[in-house]
Amino acid sequence: MFDGWFNFAGNELVNSARSHAYIRELLPHLSVNTFCGDGCGCDHLADFLGEKQYATPLIDDAPWVDVNRQESFGFYGVQTLGVVGLKDDSRTATVIESMEDGGWVTGRRRNAKEMRFTVLLTARSEESMDYGEQWLNTVLDGDCEEGCTPSAQLCFLTDCVDPATFTGTTREQTHPLNEWSLNQTTWVRGGLRFNNEASWARLSVRDSCGDVEWALQLRGEAGVTFGLEADGVVDQHVFDGTLQTFYVSTTANVVTLRPVGGTAGMASWTEPAPGTPTPPDEFAEHEDGPPTDGASYSSSWSQFTTLPMDVEIVRVTSVAHIQAEPDDCSREFYRYMRRVACIEGPTLRRSQVSDAGGILNTYDFTLVAEVPYRFGEPVVAAQGPSTNIVEQATPYRVVRLASNLPECTQVSPGPLLDPLQSIVPPPPGPSVSGGTFRAEQLLAEQRRPYAIVIPAETIPQWTSVVPIVSLTAAVDARFVRVRFLPMPIDSIAPNDLDPCSACGSFEIAYMPEGSTLVVDGASRTAYATIGGQRRSANHLLTSVSGTGTPDWPILSCGVGYVCIIDTRDQALTEVKIELLVRE
Question: Quick one: CA dihedral 334, 335, 341, 343, positive or negative?
């Protein structure tokens, strides 16, 4: 784990690299290497975060800077000296000893996670240090956007990786950047003749990241060669980005024609054999960007009438690079802890005035995470209108079931009893008639439930995944039921699913028209957004029987799952499923 950067409640709390850079620039005679944690050794943290290199608090508009408070310019930030408890698991259990050998382990659970921070604050003067201390106090108060709730989100990094080292083989979100180089391989002057029945071909280069200038430039006096049946398409993607790593290249043979008294043309094919020709388009010698994001541009060419021509065979090599986009490539290094609050501190442990100038204060404070797990970035599995939900990430898929899933009718058999023994039978279990009525009412109204398939390759083998479910109601909706079931075979036919195998389920008692209700499996909370206002909806969540608390879904063990959403037909206008890795 990298302890040189923390973000709390949406505010930068610790950035050791930033603080170290300011001290190096503004207090050059003050050495803090003996205090600094591993964040000081991460010179590329600014690149990783998508920020410019750190210079001064004023130039960088550091998080604490207030242009109306000049003392804020003399505060140089917070560095980590140590974090205790963040890596520790909070597992606990009660051991009951037997009067004989052995005992019983009961009450296995995880306590709230307590994390104790020791940090170093540096400032130019006592006035600036006082300002920095007040700023730290305010940040630790938490996020005031949700009614000044004391619980917020803590974000940190598993590692500080140089973006230039990202590679396509290890970073799923990286994109290739293709450059075209032309090299003459053969030259024949005059005498070759070609018929106008010869093939056409098209070279298509697509951009999907923005402002990119094409790297394909044709040579001035290029000609033709024999065997001009062309490959239909030489298609490569072009992406923006400057931090690159080479990997395997693609080659194709491209020639241009210069017939006597004619107009230049071009033809292409890939090795080892020609492909199917493409219908002709207007010839373009080269394209010069920037192209429109997501658009496709084509250069097409053909042979001309039977004329003597000069020939040059040109090999076009597409060399793929890797784009290092911090917003994409670095996502996998972020981790989040939910419902975190500061319960103690900051408490001053030590204050030191340096002979080289500057003040260094050491503080302790304690954060507690109510949810004792850390989570990765959410991955959208499906999102879209209820009539046309579109999968957002292969290989997720969304379908509508042809019929309802059967109800789970299993009843616990209870303990084994001897019918000949005169004992008082155990009392009956709680009545479930209310839940049965609710289920029957729901089934009578619903039409073709939604099924969002979560394949096995997206579920970790040794960790787990929790969902965030967002539903938008077209009309007042009641008894909306959401279930997550394991999918042992690649089939979502109702007869192939066991309705009693749900690994998590809940029912939403009520959703008003136009509302969006979010059930967050990470923080185990629910809220509804109505008319732009966010309101608590925890009280609207129950078990699928309507008589208990939600059974929060946890997907694990590397098997596939399917999410079944039961509701009245046309009741939902938008459905969104996100998945977060839980560690």
Answer: negative
